[in-house]
Design a protein that fits this description.
By secondary structure, this protein is α/β, with parallel strands linked by helices. Among the domains are: 118 residues, Diaminopimelate Epimerase, Chain A, domain 1 (Roll), CATH 3.10.310.70; 186 residues, TIM Barrel, CATH 3.20.20.140. Helix content is 30%, strand content 20%. The strands form 5 sheets. Strands 8-9-10-11-13-12 form a 6-stranded mixed sheet, with helices on both faces. Strands 16-18-19-20-21-22 form a 6-stranded parallel sheet. Strands 2-6-23-24-25 form a 5-stranded mixed sheet, with helices on one face. A hairpin with a 4-residue loop joins strand 10 and strand 11. The protein is globular. The two termini are 26 Å apart.
């Protein structure tokens, strides 16, 4: 087998021990690491077509993998006006006004990343922007991507003039006391009412946006991602990019299972497992157990301060339990979005029942886990359920003094249990880290940094939220290398630098374990390698 890539003068970092391997060079062939050694012996494996790169002492880690991303929907949702930098209503109004001035008559305004904290405790609605958006159809996605603000004109074009009933129990067209929509739409089913009334991008535009987003991720050091969406033509888009050699990340894709999925739908999800291409495959099923705390659609054991977040996403939670049982019996791993304590508990109960009925080694996961009580922690390890966490959500959308929307809704006791990465790790759970892009930025060094410092990324001088829940530098690295490999059942071929393992590698200018957490996001990514082929190369190499 021809050697395709050789890396010399490398410091090879083992994410298990945190130590550097004694070897200083590696070779790859057929997408696998085929040799580790010194420069002389590894260079001898080269032929005239081999790409040989002198890393000049740079640090090589196993390829960084994001444990929770939405590539296709993220590429679509981040098209338009980025509102994530706005901190108050005045700034949002100014940004919208600038955008409106550049719109053609009748054109739709799309915005994304809107933080509910800009409303400073006032109900989230379009009223503060009605005059700016007068006659303009606009859809403004809130940062959690579970809610949207639609302008009066957008609601009119979508024929939304009052409340609706949905299969998703927490979906809602929020209305005032007179039954008039306020502009706030909760959960996918409600948001889709307006989204489908807007002009749609062409398939080519969607493909090109997806490719651009993935290239940006590769340049940030990502070699893979656990993609939590596979709907519409997602599979076709992945296939097209993969077959053209334009898929720069290795993707593990989990299609959704929604309330109302019948036996035929469930069978189709099971039959999809294992399908894919060279760099992507369908593996697992994504399910929602609740919504989000910020918009009042999480499932909490006690309601939030507004009396909200009382219901599961599934109208009948026991139907979810039956679905988990059926997928478990088929050997299909599940990844369940569960943010509130009641949602997390129900997922664990469902997995426990499935295991009691049919014990087999299926690696189920819970996604997000934003607040959980003490008695829930140990159950992750006991049941072998992976804890999939996004620490930058805590960093950027909550505050140490609990004056943010998330914390105010939960109250002091529950806000003090925010994103318990440390407690879950110490209880024996396997903790996988991710960004949940487009909810938060995708660069993996920022995710690992957030897990360590737990401070707002825009102002690192602010106090951390729950510093006792921080991970160490090594634990954060494991959360994006060996732990995602374990969650995917790939620990025998991924997550480490070893002969026979995949040649998925991230090359950094310095040691991420000794780089200060606050400086880690700026550490240069010099090279990204997927399947033995560079997907990003810095000009310095």
């Amino acid at each position: 087998m021809r050697t395709s890539l050789i890396l010399l003068s490398a410091r090879l970092l083992d994410p298990v021990s945190g130590e550097f391997l004694p070897q200083t060079a590696l070779a790859a062939a057929g997408g696998r690491i085929t040799a580790l050694g010194d420069a002389q012996e590894v260079r001898a494996l080269a032929d005239p077509a081999t790409e040989v790169i002198d890393l000049k002492g740079a640090v090589v880690t196993p390829g960084l993998v994001d444990g929770h991303i939405h590539p296709v929907t993220g590429a679509e949702l981040t098209d338009g006006l980025d509102l994530s930098g706005c901190t108050d209503v005045v700034q949002v109004r100014a940004a919208l006004a600038r955008e409106v001035r550049g719109l053609a008559p009748g054109a739709w305004l799309r915005g994304w990343g809107l933080d509910p904290n800009v409303f400073a405790g006032v109900p989230v609605a379009t009223a503060p922007f009605d005059d700016v958006l007068d006659g303009v159809p606009a859809q403004l996605l809130l940062f959690d991507a579970h809610s949207m603000l639609a302008s009066r004109r957008a609601l009119e074009l979508a024929d939304v003039d009052g409340p609706r009933t949905f299969d998703q129990a927490t979906a809602e067209v929020v209305c005032d006391a007179e039954g008039r929509p306020t502009g706030l739409l909760l959960e996918e089913a409600a948001c889709e009412l307006v989204r489908r009334a807007a002009p749609q991008p062409t398939r080519e535009e969607r493909r090109d946006r997806l490719a651009a987003a993935l290239r940006t991720m590769a340049a940030a050091g990502l070699t893979g991602g656990h993609a939590m969406d596979a709907n519409g033509d997602s599979f076709a888009l992945y296939t097209e990019l993969d077959e053209a050699g334009h898929l720069p990340l290795r993707l593990r894709v989990a299609p959704w299972c929604q309330p109302g999925t019948d036996a035929d739908g469930l069978r189709a999800l099971i039959d999809q497992q294992g399908t894919g291409g060279r760099l992507w495959r369908t593996d697992g099923v994504k399910i929602f157990m609740d919504g989000t705390i910020d918009n009042g659609t999480a499932w909490l054991e006690q309601p939030d301060c507004h009396g909200e977040s009382r219901d599961a996403f599934w109208p009948d939670p026991e139907e979810y339990t039956r679905v988990i049982g059926a997928l478990h019996r088929a050997g299909v791993p599940t990844a369940t979005h569960a943010i509130g304590d009641a949602a997390v508990r129900h997922v664990l109960d469902a997995v426990e029942k499935a295991q009691a009925d049919d014990w087999r080694a299926v690696r189920h996961r819970v996604e997000h886990i934003e607040t959980v009580p003490d008695d829930t922690l140990r159950r992750f390890a006991e049941l072998g359920v992976v804890a999939s966490m996004q620490p930058t959500h805590c960093c950027d959308f909550t505050r140490a003094d609990h004056t943010d929307n998330w914390s105010r809704r939960l109250g002091e006791e529950r806000a003090a249990r925010a994103w318990r990465c440390r407690d879950l790790h110490d209880s024996g759970a396997v903790v996988v880290l991710g960004s949940d892009w487009p909810i938060a930025p995708a660069p993996p060094l920022g995710v690992m940094a957030g897990a360590r410092h737990r401070r707002p990324s825009r102002d690192l001088t602010q106090d951390p939220h729950g510093p006792e829940q921080a991970l160490t530098a090594l634990e954060a690295l494991q959360g994006m290398t060996v732990n995602p490999a374990y969650a995917a059942g790939e620990e025998h071929e991924a997550g480490r630098i070893a002969i026979g393992h995949r040649a998925d590698l991230t090359v950094l200018a310095a040691d991420p374990l000794t780089t200060a957490a606050t400086e880690l996001p700026d550490l240069p990514v010099l090279l990204t390698v997927v399947d033995g082929e560079p997907t990003h190369r810095d000009a310095r190499l």
